Fold this protein.
Amino acid sequence: MKFEYQQLINQKQIIDELELQSFEMNIYLLKLHVGNNQGMLYENGQLMRFHSTQQVRDAFAEFTVLRSVMVHDSPYDEMIGNPPKTETNLKMPFSMQQPY
């Protein structure tokens, strides 16, 4: 499912889980869980990208987010010649509160 950012704002949607997916070079994508639906966040039909965690906090400052996590997929083992792990994702809590 696709979630359009502006539509979420207009509906004042409650986000059950915000999953911040971290990629190399400071690229972050969001997967949202709203009710029984889950999907990526889009803006004007394009996958919405963020370049810092603060951008995510700012974009969702007016939303009610019940749970937020950051997921980082590390290719480290493959880079050093080890066989790939079956699960390389690191999932940790992510605070939506301003760090200051």
